[in-house]
Specification:
heterodimer; A: 259 residues; Alpha-Beta Plaits; B: alpha+beta; Cytochrome-c3 Hydrogenase, chain B; three-stranded antiparallel β-sheet; 15 helices; 46% helix
Chain lengths: 259, 381
């Protein structure tokens, strides 16, 4: 406890030194900051501005080029509507459930094209959606100014994110390579009724319905009601979005490893 | 003799977050203290049970907002054990490097806040400025300045951008000069020494008995560091010394943290040399399907259609900037962890405050509590 502790040692230094040493350090820093300030004048100078990057290397007292660190920034998303395949993977991967798939014009009227709409009031900018995007159409830019008087303005429709895309802001260059996973979509053949739902909804059209020979019923056995077709998945085109698994009425498609 | 209770907190410049220190005073003398935690409880352990293994990482950054990467590392070790995933060597080195950079950033943040508690203003500005350099480095490879989301089960998200190691070495050289300046400002100042010497003394037997860890324990002369005692990742392959000090007071905690930052610089230099010469993958090649970049879908009823996936249990303990943090993850064969449990070092450090607060004056409370390095986010989770 405090009572048992010995008193601090008394030094014989000139008391002026107690103050002079820290003040000398502070004065040196002050003199440096007059030549090269550590801050920038924000609304007029922007760190993410490519034109400003070379200047900031000189202007700031920092030993690294601050501009380079903006290459991988996670800001507002840019969406290329033209290459979006409506696979739903961004919405699946979102931890905050802020992505909703909404219909955009220009699709087949029977099966409308759906693109992500992001609510930035909920978004935590984790970047899982752009990591999950198999086509690279959803990526994150260096834009970060979102303030608006209405909360509804924070919901960015696909068209609004397409406008961000058209501005050609620097986008995160580091993309996750698609892992060479051995898992594939497998079929539990006896359960399949050949309903074509998986092939119809597949965003990449990698499922084809192949004719299979009609089974011969044994005496006393009843054949299942089915169209004699079976889905076959083209693994190289498959983006593993799982749409086929979720639309399958008999739950006969599942994740597995090729035997 | 008139004693009374006063509340320091939950909104008080001393608390560095939302918690309440109730102090019983007799005049200027502290007679009793009673910490109250729980104002920042967000239920992170419960939320984790409803997230994929990788999505929990977003919560880890928010558990401790000054040491996000250290907490990501903690959770990732436990969940990799639970899932039985192997991590490439390069990813392990990168994690060690990010851990040590995070330790420097966290300790500089502590320095800035603590010195302001003592009553000095300009070291706060210097500290925040120098921490920005480390955050710039983090931003260059994670894309975030405070919430990184960088670790993944089975490795890390991406490799370093080109030129990263050279930039880091420049930053380290620059920081080493700044550490000398910090010492000039604090240790060179007799006013600072008279304020902090023999203050908040917590001796080694008390500290061990109360579960105090981290710089507070090492400041009491106990050379206990998980990086040496139970090496995780590749800490057994790098050279460094454990920083200790004998006095067990506020100044010795300052000395331990300053020395730890220098040791961190030493570790990072070795790791950067290794990274220069050993390219390789940073994410495990064979991952369970539902952990890869494209997420597993949910079936019609909203659950994952999977068959025969392994079960397991994972436990990890990591030397976080504040002390020893521990995590426990139970994998019951579903896509979410069945249970996640964390042990926060700061909780134990605050809870021991009766041993190092009673007997001092009211004006001593900010320096003593500042020397604990409190992060309420991880105390309440």
């Amino acid at each position: 406890m405090a009572a048992s502790a010995p008193p601090p040692e008394k030094t014989e230094e000139n008391p002026i030194l107690w103050v002079a040493r820290p003040m000398w350090t502070a004065a040196r820093q002050f003199a440096k900051s007059l030549v090269r300030p550590s801050t920038i004048i924000y609304p007029f100078e922007r760190l993410e501005d490519p034109k400003f990057r070379d200047e900031v290397q000189v202007a700031s007292g920092k030993p690294i080029g601050v501009g380079h660190v903006w290459d991988n920034y996670r800001g507002v998303h840019a969406l290329n509507i033209a290459t979006c395949i409506s696979c739903n993977l961004c919405a699946f991967s979102c931890p905050d459930v802020c992505i909703e798939m909404v219909t955009v014009p220009g699709g087949d009227p029977k099966h409308p094209k759906k693109c992500p709409q992001i609510d930035y009031g909920k978004c935590s900018y984790c970047g899982f959606c752009s990591d999950a995007c198999p086509e690279g159409c959803l990526s994150m830019t260096t834009r970060y100014e979102l303030s608006s008087p209405k909360r509804a303005d924070l919901v960015y429709s696909p068209q609004k994110m397409y406008e961000v895309f058209q501005r050609k802001l620097p986008m995160s260059p580091i993309r996750l390579e698609r892992p060479a996973n051995e898992d594939a979509i497998l079929l539990d053949a006896p359960l399949c009724i050949g309903c074509n739902a998986c092939a119809r909804d597949c965003p990449t059209n990698c499922i084809t319905m192949l004719d299979i020979p009609k089974a011969v019923a044994k005496p006393g056995e009843k054949l299942p009601r089915r169209i004699w077709k079976e889905p076959v998945v083209n693994d190289s085109d498959c983006v593993r979005c799982g749409t086929c698994i979720s639309v399958c009425p008999k739950e006969c498609l599942f994740w597995g490893t090729h035997p | 003799m008139s004693e009374m209770w006063i509340n320091m907190g939950p909104q008080h410049p001393m608390t560095h977050g939302l918690w309440n220190l109730r102090v019983k005073i007799d005049g200027e003398l502290i007679v009793d203290v009673d910490p109250e935690m729980g104002y920042l409880h967000r239920g992170i352990e419960k939320i984790s049970e409803d997230r994929h293994y990788n999505e929990v990482i977003t919560l880890m950054d928010r558990t401790c907002y000054v040491a996000g990467l250290a907490w990501e590392h903690l959770y990732i070790i436990a969940s990799e054990q639970a899932l039985g995933v192997e991590t490439p060597e390069r990813a392990q080195y990168i994690r060690v490097m990010t851990d040590e950079f995070q330790r420097i950033a966290s300790h500089i943040m502590w320095y800035a806040a603590f010195v302001q508690d003592v009553g000095l203003m300009s070291p706060f500005l210097y500290g925040m400025r120098d921490r920005d350099l480390v955050l710039d480095l983090f931003q260059s490879f994670t894309g975030g300045r405070l919430t990184y989301e960088y670790n993944r089960v089975g490795g890390v998200r991406n490799d370093m951008p080109p030129g990263f190691t050279d930039r880091s070495r420049k930053v380290l050289d620059w920081l080493m000069d700044r550490f000398v300046e910090y010492d000039h400002l604090c240790l060179g100042s007799e006013i600072f020494r008279r304020r902090c010497d023999q203050l908040g003394v917590l001796r080694a037997p008390d500290a061990i008995a109360l579960g105090v860890t981290g710089p507070m324990l090492r400041g009491a002369g106990v050379p206990r560091d998980l990086r040496k005692d139970r090496p995780y990742a590749v800490y057994d392959r790098v050279e460094f010394d454990i920083a200790t000090a004998e006095a067990a007071d506020v100044t010795s905690r300052y000395l331990v943290r300053m020395e730890e930052m220098r040791q961190s610089v030493r570790i990072i230099r070795q790791v950067l040399d290794w990274l220069d010469h050993h390219p390789g993958p940073v994410l495990a090649e064979k991952l369970p399907k539902w952990l890869g970049a494209p997420y597993a879908p949910v079936g019609r009823e909203g659950y994952l259609l999977r068959r025969n996936y392994p079960k397991g249990v994972g436990f990890s303990s990591v030397e976080e900037p504040h002390g020893e943090a521990q995590a426990y993850v139970v994998n019951e064969g579903t896509e979410h962890p069945y249970r996640v449990k964390f042990r926060s070092p700061v909780f134990a450090n605050i809870a021991a405050c009766k041993k190092y607060m009673i007997g001092y004056r009211v004006a001593d409370i900010p320096p003593i509590m500042g020397s604990v390095d409190i992060c309420v986010g991880e105390v309440d989770r």
